[in-house]
Amino acid sequence: MSRSVLITGGNRGIGLAIARHLAEAGDRVAVTYRSGEPPEGLLAVRCDITDTDQVDAAFKEVEEQHGPVEVLVANAGITKDQLLMRMSEDDFTTVVDTNLTGAFRVTKRASRGMLRAKKGRVVFISSAVALRGESGQANYAASKAGLVGFARSMARELGSRGITFNVVAPGLTETSMSQALSDEQLENLKTQIPLGRLARPEEIAATVAFLASEQAAYITGAVVPVDGGAGMGH
Question: Which residues are tagged catalytic?
Answer without folding.
Answer: 140
